[in-house]
């Protein structure tokens, strides 16, 4: 499973200070976990959470779930020590909050040599510098921070997210242009399955690779929304078969369900099948 097919449908935040939640996550069918040292951890617990988290990651048990550690900003009193601690943790990536520009990633890269870096995209400056941030050589993923973004923009909550569509699109454009994974922001009302489903579907329609979550009850809805559906898998298989048959007859175009199928559609079809296989492999673990 490579970086392009590794599923990131569901990305669950876990407060790095909560041992019970750290243990619970080992049993949840999430594709990735953000072990949080930032906003989910109370000020009095910030320093202790580093040791709790380091011990939990060292003990293992998270299987093939991607392990991402979110540190505090480097401009806070905890950030640099968090980064030095994260550099020694059993994790796949370090996530920096409130990234305004690529120079902050340079500073983090010097503290966590060899680790992949992910960026929280949640400030107005970050939106305006999204392309330069995505282009950073250590940067492998974007996480939308829609709560902080709403705060900075002074938007009101709307189910259609119209006030932040431009920001979401700017980050999507930057991520796709540089082959970077991008996951959507959290849905705060964690008992509202219908609202979550609608926002997941909107995120999938827009091109997000997955969504960040705050509670185990959100995982199932999210995994379903960001996995290829049976209809999509069936269509992809028929497109590939039809295109191969057309090519064998010297044609460059096939027709499936009344719609043309060209080489570019086959690229998408093969990606869908690869994603479905990768998800099936995870489920079989
Ligand atoms: C929201 C919560 C505080 C609710 O917690 P709680 O009241 O304990 O929920 P439940 O009693 O329903 O929990 C049932 C069991 O599930 C475990 N649990 C709960 N949450 C998690 C979790 N996130 N990961 C793993 N396990 C979890 C409980 O321990 C219970 O287990 P058990 O007793 O064994 O059955 C809580 O869900 C929570 O703290 N969520 C995370 C909040 C968080 O991480 N916030 C920061 C990230 S959001 C953000 O910052 C986005 C961004 O920066 C932006 O700007 O938008
Ligand atoms: Mg935030």
From TrEMBL:
Q: Residue ranges of the HpcH/HpaI aldolase/citrate lyase domain?
A: 9-216
Which Gene3D superfamilies does its entry note? Phosphoenolpyruvate-binding domains
Question: Listed GO molecular functions?
Answer: lyase activity
InterPro entries hit by this protein? Aldolase/citrate-lyase_domain, Citrate_lyase_beta/mcl1/mcl2, Pyrv/PenolPyrv_kinase-like_dom, Pyrv_kinase-like_dom_sf
Recite the UniProt keywords alphabetically.
Lyase, Magnesium, Metal-binding
Entry cofactors = Mg(2+)
Q: Which PANTHER family match?
A: CITRATE LYASE SUBUNIT BETA, LYASE BETA SUBUNIT, PUTATIVE (AFU_ORTHOLOGUE AFUA_4G13030)-RELATED
Task: Tell me which family the UniProt entry assigns to this protein.
Answer: Belongs to the HpcH/HpaI aldolase family.
This one is known as CoA ester lyase
Task: Provide the species name.
Answer: Donghicola mangrovi
